[in-house]
Inverse folding.
């Protein structure tokens, strides 16, 4: 401890360094960056015939190792400590005759202009730039100016650093403004226990003549796992890229020592584009009793299934890890914009990186298994990419689910982990006279388009619950007679289509603000309009207000009004519906156009407990009878609101009504998906 300076300013004091090296003696002192780790980078930029200047050499062995390995012999080392210069001269005088040690201040060097091809700095800039005081920055400017002066055009300034943000920013801004090419290398770790948790970087500044009036900058970063540099557009982006790698190193260090109390998430990006390629979640299971073979496993989530509850939620991943029986499970989600060469290719690509996230206590040379569902990476085929001023970028994709079923999905890319709409695809059927494919014939391509949309199947649990809400409508018959339904929010159109197809006397009006969604639903999800199905492209708020105003003269009453509309504002803790749709004045307009015995069905997705309670209180003010139905494993809660409290029914009555309605809906030639029942949707219904 007595070797540490009392103040950061002492790092620039010759007296401090004299005392430091006298007390330390002959033992070499390496700030960070052992020679074996630095060697690959040095080999790229130091040639055997180069004249090399090492500034602030201290008693590091770096120059000696470069000399002894034949990397370079014409090396001049300078330092402001007389004590260390004398030590180093004695150490190398007889064995390294071409290398010299000079007592000299790097802020005022005696060398002529353009004297060196390489200036090497190992920790000296970090030691000098301890703060951002004016005096400190002036010294750094003087240091950079001297380095620039003694370097030839085409020469390289190599700075080994821990890359604190203010240090990197200062170096990058100074030399890029001088017209130099700036490249930052992350030094690959040797795998040995390191003195510093943070990674070591080498800034490579290549001197070019400054072109008057040119503002062009060449800024690059080379991550440790690749040789090819990645271009970045600004000093801020370069500093941010380095910071990301520092955070990753801290994370790896932390989780290699202790189990994770909370799930850790991170993205691994594509080397070429910089876009996310893999999303990893580290899930620890304290309940799993450790043995030699169950410490660690990697689980590859099949493409297109990353949004499922088991893979897309914390609780689901926790359950997956526990059932897999491993102390730490690393789940890996694949991104739709990327191409993957099967399970073997993914394993080869990830093997080195995932071991950095291994748990404490993993036995040496332990084989880590790669797991998946069905042993493959799944199938995802993007059918359509689009963009809308209202919805942003979106994709329509076909994915293979659990088993042989295929599904078509609409995903808004601003919230890529949420499936906006989903429909099951029918298996293609042979045309009349067409022979069925023989078993020994070539199988269809995984990306071969499946058949048409299966309109009998509701993929979304909340849509099933919303349909079941129609059981709350009165009447003596199992099915309501003429039924007027208003749906706000089209999406892929599966909810209004189901109501239209199964309630044969229903007249369905749909309000959709985004014309692009009507095109998507029509082109990709089998949606169509007729005399019983009409879409109005309009803002739902404006359309409802218009109907409420007209209802004073021309009654426009609906049996059921359904809100399934998402919010584009991700800063609010309620993603469905937008807050304006649950304000009291607007809800009163909804009530105005709803029949007295009608039902208002609302899909509520709200993570903010306070906001949710406020919404429920407002709904109760307008609709005295309020039922709720939670969707298992999802945040969604379906609310059924009625204006007449006398319409309250017991669970037994609702169950009987649901079974009767479903029996009437199940007609020959109109298939019903047997995986769900209306009565089941109403079992968990409770009155608020």
């Amino acid at each position: 401890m007595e070797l540490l300076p009392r103040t950061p300013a002492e790092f620039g004091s010759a007296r401090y360094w004299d005392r430091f090296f006298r007390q330390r003696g002959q033992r070499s002192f390496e700030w960070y960056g052992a020679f074996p780790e630095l060697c690959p980078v040095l080999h790229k930029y130091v040639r055997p015939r180069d004249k090399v200047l090492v500034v602030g050499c201290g008693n590091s062995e770096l120059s000696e190792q470069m000399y002894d390995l034949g990397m370079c012999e014409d090396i001049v080392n300078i330092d402001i400590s007389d004590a260390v210069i004398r030590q180093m001269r004695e150490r190398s005088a007889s064995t390294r005759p071409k290398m010299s040690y000079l007592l000299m201040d790097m802020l005022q060097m005696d060398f002529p202009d353009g004297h060196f091809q390489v200036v090497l700095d190992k920790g000296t800039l970090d030691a000098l730039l301890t703060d951002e005081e004016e005096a400190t920055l002036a010294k750094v400017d003087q240091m950079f100016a001297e380095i620039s002066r003694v370097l030839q055009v085409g020469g390289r300034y190599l700075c080994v650093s821990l890359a604190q943000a203010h240090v990197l920013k200062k170096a990058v801004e100074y030399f890029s403004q001088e017209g130099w090419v700036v490249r930052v290398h992350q030094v690959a770790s040797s795998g040995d226990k390191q003195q510093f948790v943070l990674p070591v970087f080498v800034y490579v500044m290549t001197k070019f003549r400054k072109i008057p009036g040119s503002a062009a900058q060449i800024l690059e970063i080379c991550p440790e796992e690749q040789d090819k540099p990645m271009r970045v557009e600004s000093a801020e982006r370069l500093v941010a890229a380095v910071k990301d790698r520092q955070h990753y190193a801290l994370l790896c260090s932390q989780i290699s020592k202790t189990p994770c109390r909370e799930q850790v998430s991170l993205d691994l990006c594509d080397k070429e584009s910089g876009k996310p390629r893999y999303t990893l979640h580290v899930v620890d299971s304290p309940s799993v009793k450790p043995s030699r073979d169950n410490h660690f496993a990697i689980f590859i989530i099949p493409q297109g299934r990353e949004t499922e509850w088991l893979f897309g939620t914390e609780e689901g991943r926790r359950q997956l890890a526990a059932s897999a029986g491993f102390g730490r499970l690393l789940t890996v989600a694949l991104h739709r914009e990327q191409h993957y060469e099967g399970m073997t290719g993914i394993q080869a690509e990830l093997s080195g990186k995932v071991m950095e996230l291994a748990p404490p206590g993993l036995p040496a040379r332990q084989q880590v298994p790669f797991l998946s569902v069905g042993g493959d990476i799944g199938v995802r085929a993007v059918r359509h990419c689009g963009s809308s001023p209202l919805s942003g970028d979106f994709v329509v994709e076909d994915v293979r689910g659990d088993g042989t079923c295929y599904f078509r999905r609409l995903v808004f890319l601003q919230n890529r982990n949420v499936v906006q709409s989903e429909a099951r695809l029918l298996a293609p059927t042979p045309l009349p006279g067409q022979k069925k494919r023989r078993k020994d014939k070539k199988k269809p391509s995984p990306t071969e388009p499946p058949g048409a949309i299966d309109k009998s199947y509701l993929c979304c649990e909340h849509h099933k619950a919303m349909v079941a809400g129609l059981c709350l409508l009165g009447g003596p018959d199992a099915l309501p007679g003429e039924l007027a339904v208003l749906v706000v929010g089209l999406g892929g159109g599966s909810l209004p289509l189901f109501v239209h197809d199964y309630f044969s006397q229903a007249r369905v009006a749909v309000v959709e603000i985004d014309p692009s969604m009507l095109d998507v639903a029509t082109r990709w999800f089998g949606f169509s309009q007729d005399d019983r199905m009409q879409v109005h492209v309009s803002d739902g708020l404006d359309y409802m207000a218009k109907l409420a105003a007209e209802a004073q003269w021309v009654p426009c009453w609906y049996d059921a009004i359904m809100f399934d509309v998402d919010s584009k504002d991700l800063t609010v803790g309620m993603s469905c519906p937008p807050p304006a749709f649950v304000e009291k004045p607007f809800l009163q307009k909804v009530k105005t156009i709803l029949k007295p015995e009608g039902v208002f069905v609302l899909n509520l997705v709200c993570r903010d407990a306070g906001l949710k309670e406020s919404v429920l209180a407002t709904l109760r003010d307008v609709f005295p009878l309020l039922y709720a139905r939670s969707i298992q494993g999802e945040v969604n809660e379906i609310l059924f609101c009625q204006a007449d409290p006398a319409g309250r029914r017991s669970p037994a009555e609702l169950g009987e009504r649901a079974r009767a309605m479903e029996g009437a809906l199940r007609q020959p030639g109109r298939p019903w998906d047997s995986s769900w029942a209306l009565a089941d949707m109403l079992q968990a219904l409770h009155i608020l």
